[in-house]
Amino acid sequence: MGFDYKRFPYYSGKLGFSLDNGKTSFFIWAPSAKEVTIRLYDEGLWSDAIEERKLEKHSDGHFETTFEKNLDGIYYDYLIVTGGEEYITADPYAIAAGANGERSMVLDLRRTDPEGWEEDKAPERPVENIIYEVHVKDFTFQEFSGISPEKRGKYLGLAERGTRLTTDKNFKTGLDYLCDLGITHVQLMPIYDYGSVDELGDDMDFNWGYDPVNYNVPEGSYSSDPMHGEVRIRELKEMIMALHKSGLRVIMDVVYNHTYHLDSYLFRTEPWYFYRQNADGSPSNGSGCGNDIASERPMVHRYIVESVLYWAREYHIDGFRFDLMGLLDTNLIGDIRVKLDNIYGEGEKLIYGEPWGAGLTPFAEGAYPADKGALKYISANIGAFCDATRDMIKGSTFEFHAKGFVSGGNVEPHLWRNSVSGWSIEDWRFATKAPSQTILYVSSHDDWTLWDKLVGALSENESFLKKDPDLLRANKLAAALYFTMMGNLFMLSGEEAGRTKLGVKNSYNSPLFINKFDWQRTKEFKVLVDYYKGLMRMRKKMPCLLDKSEKAKDRILSSTIISNKTVTITLDNKEHERYKTIKLIYTGEAGYFSLPVDGKWYILMDGENPDMTDNPMEVENVVYSHGREVIMLGR
Ligand code: CA
Q1: What is the pLDDT of residues 146-194, one digit of tens each?
Q2: What average pLDDT does this structure show over 367-386?
Q3: Ligand 1 centroid – CA 294 distance (Å)
Q4: Residues 488 and 436 sit within 8 Å (Cβ to Cβ)
Q5: Is 323 designated active site?
Q6: Cβ contacts of residue 72 below 8 Å, gap of 6+?
Q7: Which listed residue (238, 354, 447, 452) is catalytic?
Q8: Distance between CA atoms of 41 and 130, rounded to whole angstroms?
């Protein structure tokens, strides 16, 4: 007989703390606990308790107590006696915490609102979603960025405007650089409180942050003062406000599938309830981290839904990227979709995730994984990263030397039609409802950067730093490929500038010299950056590529395989004022294409020039000599 989560009472009342009329109340759900004691502190670390008190237990499994005073600014933790064990724990429902998240904090959140926060709102919904993945620290850390020294590696570093490369006062960096790119969303790698970096430790410490400690508290190492719980909250809000003011929407990477350790605040509060177990009682390991969250259990469901809604409400977050979404259940993701739609309007907040796990996890009976197989059955506004398109373009992400189409691979006929329509390919062919569900990408924080992967597939001397013209062309082709497919677009910051991690495949805890965003290199690769900028401009003008509806597939008028290196596709672009039909030639060889003689054709993009829509060149036939490019024609 396994762990019977159904015997636990559901509790729908207040959790965490409440501050109201000079009174402070505390609430925690711990039905198995015999005794819960709260301990109050003046400081977030080290100091002795100034007061202790036992909470009163209720039949719905929650404990509660009220102090007849305003405890704003006071830190606290719990001593819980349960199952013959004694646990010291912070509050898993905490919204503020001291250094390293060890003690929770009572805080009047209105004290943390920067000036103008009440008026802060997301920029208008863009015509396309071009999502750019940023790590607060790696993006702002390098000295060449010109970001103020005390702000480098911090929330405020990403909020700073007017920064320029220290070696070239005309080259924009940081947030100014982002504003000019043409991206529409910044996806922040974990900004909740994670455990792998000591917030009071060395400034050179680095981690991606996929190790949650406090789900509803911002990470302290990005703040100027981790000792005072209100500071990180205010600074994160300042950063989000700066991004919004700069015309960018903000997406948060959320990791509800596992915690840093099994011995988490959730576990200490109610042992095992929040985690899936194997038949032998051991914690299941679908996450690769040895502790999978049991998202389908009622109080876990409540926890995750409320956490997402909290970030949307309190921090004005515009979208959520679910890490290993395939370990969460469809009911949870669907519920989050419905609740966000009800509050903010349909599809206003983006939701997407990785539609897989790292391994198998035992779902409870009646619960289904939010993986690829589920896309057809859930909202068309729940998206998923498309690994099949990714691998078709650049080669298997698991093999350094594997080739994809951009590195000389052949056209695989069954891949193309579905790929370009954003329905994606192979196992994805029948998997999605519409391009709205597809996240097209060729790089993310995981695995080799696109540039490093191209080095693996194409370069003989494996030089990551050299601006090799062959690799540059392959990189442009990779970008042109996914920028001319239907779906949402996603890229790792620096993909547009040949970002390299010197061949390191999994840099989650690599030092900053591997992980840093390199501003000098970004200037050196300006020609590639400019190509990406042009692709973004072109993309936003092409109705046939922007269509995310279920009918988008009807826009494909024809697709022809010319050879094992060249494919053409014709798309209905009727809403465009000038180019009603678009023809795309995807090629990995030099060649010649005779256009149908039924009208005047104009070249709108090629391997060198990604956006000629304002200055098109009339042609009767197309000669492509570069060997690797996407050519777009309009008629
Ligand atoms: Ca932390």
Answers
A1: 999 999 999 999 999 999 999 999 999 999 999 999 999 999 999 999 9
A2: 94
A3: 23
A4: yes
A5: yes
A6: 19, 24, 106, 107, 108, 111
A7: 354
A8: 45
